[in-house]
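Reopening: Protein-arginine rhamnosyltransferase still failing for me.
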Amino acid sequence: MTLRIDIFCRVIDNYGDIGVCWRLAQQLAVHQSVAEVRLWVDDLVSFQRIAPAVNAKTPTQLLNHVDVHHWSGNEAAFFPTPADVVIEAFACELPAAYRQQLSGQELWLNLEYLSAEGWVEGFHLQASPQPESQHKYFYFPGFTPNTGGLLRESQLLAQREAWLKSTAAQHTLLQKLGLAPQQITDILQHRLRLVVFFQYESAPLAALLQALSQQAQPSLVLSPRASDVALARSLNLASVKVQQFGFLPQAEFDQLLWTSQLNFVRGEDSLIRALWAAQPMIWQPYPQSEDSHLVKLEALLQRSSLPPLFQQTMLNWSTGYRSDLVQQLSECLSMENWDKWRAEALQWQATLAQQTDLVTQLLRFSQQHVRQR
Ligand code: TRH
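Support: Ran it again with your exact input. Result attached.
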């Protein structure tokens, strides 16, 4: 049976909520077992930042086979008959007018935030019955076979391979980002290290710039934040430059992560994209109260096979324990460790790619549910 799927997404902050939902919606929409995907999102302006084709003034639009609706917040607004599978992203709470129309037969999934912590396995696919439906379940993405897996488009890794072989494609992207011809040539001929820096404001960029300046190879750091450019100017380091880039559509942001030699990413979605990019990377989790983000970071590191130097550096990057951070970063970047770091990144990608991806798992569960009802 082909499925109809509804996804609801509230943008709480930043771009991760819509980032995940948009990837999910697009992947589901082109799957042979899916007839229709509708995506309700409350913030079209944030959505447009990662998908410029979005018209932020239109209440409904068809984009990449996904029927996109603006979720206006008006609880009495009209909602059509619910689909076979209803995905409530990150406990966003379905609108009352939609809930009232549930027949009780739909599969209702609460898509949760990604975490590498061990407890996730025990909660994935646990039932959460509601007055309107007995068929509500928690769906936890994750890094192990007992979780819901990670988002990975079926052609993603092949596309990355092809991209890395195409100097022309990489050249075009770097040109679009406003890099000078000489910078592009130097990056593509590995005379200039390209670093992507997508981090929260608390990230210790100055330490990174100092560590980069101690290397034989000069570096160009690309950041979407203007204040990062100003900070670099104030440090005035001869061999390191920071340049601002405008937000790219999601697919091009992936390509940038593939081209870059070192990726600094944040939140959950760009973490996964950096893991698929298989380049050395440092992840900064979204800072949370009581340091629960550090628990997430430690859990991720425990699932990796990164040697202690890289693990400790990544921890120090987010803990604020910085006295020897420049030294640690410098060691990671040294000729001796750099190749090790690259090999680890490739190995991590290959290991994770053996897992069944999130969309395949979610659709398998949905089909089983639909057959049984
Ligand atoms: O934007 P984020 O910081 O989102 C975070 C997390 O999702 C976190 O869970 C949430 O609680 C917090 O916000 C409030 O980082 P994340 O998850 O990496 O999402 C960024 C998205 O933006 C991702 O889909 C990639 C996309 N992006 C582009 O498409 N183009 C770009 O140029 C850049 C820089 C990002």
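The domain at 156-353 is CATH 3.40.50.2000 (Rossmann fold). If you still see a failure, please send the error message rather than a screenshot.
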